[in-house]
Design brief:
The complex is a heterotrimer of chains A (about 400), B (about 350) and C (about 290).
Chain A lengths: L4 H16 L10 E7 L7 H20 L7 E7 L5 H14 L4 E4 L3 H13 L3 E4 L7 E3 L2 E3 L4 H15 L3 E7 L2 H16 L3 E8 L7 H10 L3 E5 L6 H9 L8 E3 L7 H4 L2 H4 L3 E4 L8 H14 L8 H20 L4 H9 L3 E4 L2 E6 L4 E12 L2 E11 L2 H4 L11 E3 L5
Parallel strand pairs in A: 1-2, 1-3, 3-4, 4-6, 7-8, 7-9, 9-10, 10-11
Antiparallel strand pairs in A: 5-16, 11-14, 12-13, 13-14, 14-15
Helix pairs in contact in A: 2-12, 3-4, 5-6, 12-13
Chain B lengths: L4 H23 L2 H26 L7 H19 L3 H23 L5 H20 L7 E2 L2 E2 L24 H24 L1 H11 L1 H6 L4 H27 L9 H14 L5 H19 L5 H15 L4 H13 L11 H7 L3
Chain C lengths: L1 H31 L6 H17 L4 H23 L8 H23 L12 E4 L2 E4 H23 L1 H11 L1 H6 L4 H23 L11 H14 L3 H22 L2 H18 L4 H4 L6
Antiparallel strand pairs in C: 1-2
Classes of the chains: A alpha/beta (about 400), B mainly alpha (about 350), C mainly alpha (about 290).
Amino acid sequence: MKFNRREFLQTGAAAAAAGAVLPHAAQAADEIVVSQIHDQSGIFDIYGNPMVETFNMAVDEINAAGGLLGKKLKSINYDPQSKMELYGQYAQQSALKDRVSVVHGGITSASREVIRPVLRRYNTLYFYNTLYEGGVCDRNTFCTGTTPAQTVEKLVPYVTKNFGKKVYILAADYNYGQITAKWVTKFVRDNGGEVVETEFFPLDVTNFGPTIQKIQAAKPDAIVSALVGGAHLSFYRQWHAGGMKNEIPIASTTFGGGNEHIVLTEEEGNGIIYACGYFMELDTPDSKAYVARFAKKYGEKHSYLTELPTATYEGMMLWAKAVENAGTTDRMKVIEALEDNLSIDGPSGKVSVDPKTHHVVRTALIAECHNKGFRLLESHENQFPSDTAAFCDLEKNPNDNTHYEIKI
Amino acid sequence: MRLDADNIGLIVAAVGGLALLFGLPLVVELFTLLQFTVYIVMAILALSLALIWGFGGILCFGQAVFFGLGAYAYTIAVFNIGESTVPVLLSIVVPAAFAAALGYFMFYGRLSDVYMGVVTLVVTLIFFSFMNHTAGEEYRIGASRLGGFNGIPAIPPINMPGDPGRVLWPEEMYYVAMGSLTAIYIGLRLLLRSHFGRVIVAIRENETRAELLGYDVRLHKLLIFSIGGAIAGLAGCLFANWNAFVDPTVFGLGQTAQIIIWVIVGGLGTLIGPVIGAMLLQYITTWLGTVEVANSSLVMGAILVVFVLLVPRGLVPTLQLLWQKLRGGRSDPGIVATPREAVESGDD
Amino acid sequence: MDLVAVLALEVLFAIASLALISAGLAVIFGMMRVVNLAHGEFLMLGGYAAIIATNSGINIWISMLIVAPLVVAAIGVIVERLLIRFLYGRMVDTMLATWGLSLFFIGLVTTIFGNTTRGISSPLGGATVGDYKIGLYKLFIIGVTVVLLAAVYLVLRRTKLGLIARGTMQNANMASALGISPDKVYAITFAIGAGLSGLAGALLAPLTGIVPTIGIAYIAKSFITVIGGGAAILTGTISASTLFGTINQLVTFQSSPVFGEVALLVAAVILLRLLPQGITGRFFRRSM
C-alpha cells in the first residue's frame, strides 16, 4: 500500500477546516442532494446539453418512483461554460457547500482530472460518464463510458475483414486520440494488416486539404478516424467535396458522438462505420422505451442520444441502485455496494460495474451511418475494460490514485 | 510622509488588504475562501496588465503568455525538484526573462501600438498551438510530461520553504494569495510614485518628448514589461496551485481577452480598477454557471455591451468623476475626463 | 507531377481562403480603425444564413452569394447604428464592445438554433487530375475571391462612393465640410465589411463544420493577415495572404498541421519585426 503523506495532510487539513467552519444551510431531512457539472455553453455544449437532459430525466424518474430511501432527490446543475477553472470551483462548491451525495460530470479528460482530485480530497463520490482513453484508477471514481479496448477491438476486425488490410489513421491530437491510435495500430497488426500512416490534428484544425492529398498518395484500403469536435467535422466535408467519399471507406470511434451524423448531409455521412456503446436507433425494448420517455419529456425535436448522455443516465441509475442496496447514501457503503458486481439493464443493454477497475462491462456496437441516423451491423455484449484492467486493481490496491497511461 | 490624498489611498489599501487577509478566514467557510483565492489570483493577473498597459502604454494582447509560462514553469519544476521554493521563484523569473526577450525584440524593433498587440497575440497563439500538440510521450521535461490538450493534473501544492512534506493548507494558500495581492498593489503604487514610475508615465504620454529629455524609452519600456511579466507569472503559479491542474487554455485567446476585459471594465490607467474588474467579472461568470436562466455567453455578452455604453470609462474612473461632481469641487468634468489624466492626478 | 499540380491548387486555395476571411476585417479595420473582435462571428452568421436559407428551399448559390452577404450586412448596419457609432475614436472601448458582441452572437445563435445544425454539402463534385481527385468547389472559391477583390478595387478606385469613402477615412472633418455625411459613410463602410465577412462565411460553410463557436477558429488568423498586410487594404491583404497561405500549406504538407500553424505564426512575428508597418508599409506603398 502506498501511503502518501502529502495527500494525507491535505485530507486531514480539509476535514479539520470543514469541521471548523459554520454549518451551511442544512439539507432538508427529506432530500438527497446530488449535483452535475456539464458544459451547457461554450465549445463543449454540444456534448454537455444532452447529458444534462438525461441526468435530469434520471432524477425525475427516480423521484416519480418514490425517490430513494424514502427521500426525494434534489439535483443541482452547474454549467462550467467549457472553462477549466469553473470545473474546479463547482467541484469545490458541490463537495464543501452543497455537501452532495454524488457528483456526475466532466466531459473532456482534462475536466475530469480537475474534478477528480478535488472530490477525492473532500470525500465526495464521483461518476465520470464519458468515453475516454481509459486508465483512471481511483476508488472514489466510477467511469461508465467505453474505453478504446472495448470498441476498437471489435471495430478493427470489421474494417480489415470488409475493406482491406491497409489502414490510414486520423486522430485528434490529445490523449484520447493518441491512445486510440495506438490501440488501432495494435489491433490492425493483430489482424494481419498494416498502418500506412498516422496523423494527429489539434482540435481547432479546419483545413484538411493537404491531408486528403496525402491519403490519396498513400492509397489505403480504409481510414480509421478518431477526429473530435466541431472543427474536425471539416474533414468529412472536405473529403466529400474532394470527390473521395465513395473511394475509400471510413470507420470511427468518435463519428456521431458530437452529432456529426446530423450536421453532415446524407451524402457526406452515409456509410461511415461507427463503434460505440450506444446510438439512438438501437432496436431493443429498453432502448426504445428510453427514447420514448426522453421524447415525451423534451418534445419531438429532442437532442440526439449518443453514448455520452446514455452513459450519464445509466451512471445515475447505477448509483441509485447502489444507494438502495446499501440502504444509505454514505460514500463508503455506496462504493462497496457498487463494487459488489452491481449491474442494471440500461438502454444500451446490461451494464455492470467491474470492482477492480471501477469501469463498466457493457455492450459494444458496430453501426453504419445512414440518413442522419445509424443502423446496427454487429452487437458484442459484455465487453470488458481490459485496457484499464491491465494496470488497475482496486481490490488489491484500494488506495491507488493514478491516471495510468495505457502502454501497448 | 505627508498626509495627502495619495498617501491616504495607500494607507487605506494597506489596512483594507490586511483586514481582508486576516479577517476573511474568520468569518467565511472553507468553500468561500477557496473561491476567493481564485478571484484574488485573477486580480493579481489583472494588475500585471494594468501596469504595463494602463501606465506603460504597451498594448499587450498576450498577457496570457506570461500567466501560462508561470503556471507551466512552476508545474514542470515542482515535478522535477519536489520542493516548491525554487519552482515558485522560477515561475516568476522565467516569464520575466521571456518578457525581457520579447520586449527587446519589440521595443528595440520600434514596433508601435497595434502591431505590438498583434505580435504579442501571435506569440500567445504559438504557445497555445505548441502546448496543445505535446500529448505524445516524447514531450517531457525531466520527470514531467507536458500532456498536450489534456494538461498536467495533480500538481503538488506549495510547501513550507525547506520542508517538502509540509504542504500549505487551503487557508494558507489564501494567505499567500491575499498577501501577494496586497504587497504587489502597494509595491506598484510606490513604484509609480518613484522617479522611474514618473518616467514611465511620461513615456506613455509622449514618447518623443521623453526621448528628447534624454530618457532611454526602450529600456524603460523593457523594464516595465518585464515587471508585468513577472507579476503575471506569479499569478500563473498561484493558479496552477489552486486548481492543482494546468492545461494549454492558459495560453488561449479566451484567457488573453479576459485579462484585457478586466482592465477595461475596471478602468484603464488605474490600479484598483482592474482588481475590482477581475473579481467582479469572475464572480459574475461563476454565478452565471449556477443559475440556469439563459445561455451564459449570451448574458455575459449583453452585460459587456451595455457596460461599454453606460460606463464608457470603466468603473473606477466613472466613480471618481461622480465623486468629483458630488463634491462640486471642480466644475469642469473634463479635468478628470480620461483615465490617463486620472493617473496624472495620482489618485486611483 | 500530378502531385505538384494538386499541391499548387491547395496552396492557391489556402491563399484565397485567407484573403476571403480577412477581406471584411480589412475594410472595417483598415478604413475605420475599428478593432472588430466580433469578426469571427460575422463569418459564423454568414454560414448560418446560407445554411438556413438553403435548408428552407432557396437555391444554394443564391443563398451563399446573395442572401448571406445581405443578411450579415443588415446585421452590420444594426450593430453600427446601435453600438459602434458611439465608440468611434475609442479603440479600447470598441474592443470591449465587440468582444461582448461576439459572446452575445454565440449565445444568441446557440439559443435560437441549438448547437447542432444540419449543414450543406459542397455543390460541385470532384475532378480527376492524374492519380488525384480534387474538389471543383475549391476552384470556385479561388475564382470568387479573385472576382471579389477586383470588385473591391474597382469600387474604391473608380466609383464616387469609393472616392467619398477614402476621403472620409482620411479626413472626416473636411469631408463633412464638403457636404458629405461621415455618419452615413461609416455606416455603409461597416455594412460592406460585414457583408464581405458574411459572404466569406457562407462560401466556406460547405467545407467546414458550422457551429456557433466556429468564429474563434478565424479571428486570430484574419487579424494577423490584415495587420501583416499593413495600411493598404487590398494589396496588404493579398500580399499577406499569399505569404502566410503558402508557408502554412507547404509546411503542413511536409510535416503536420500544428507545424503549419506555428510556421505561419512565426512568419508573422518575423515579418512584423522586419517591417513594423506591415508589408505595404515598405513595399507597394502607393497602392491601396
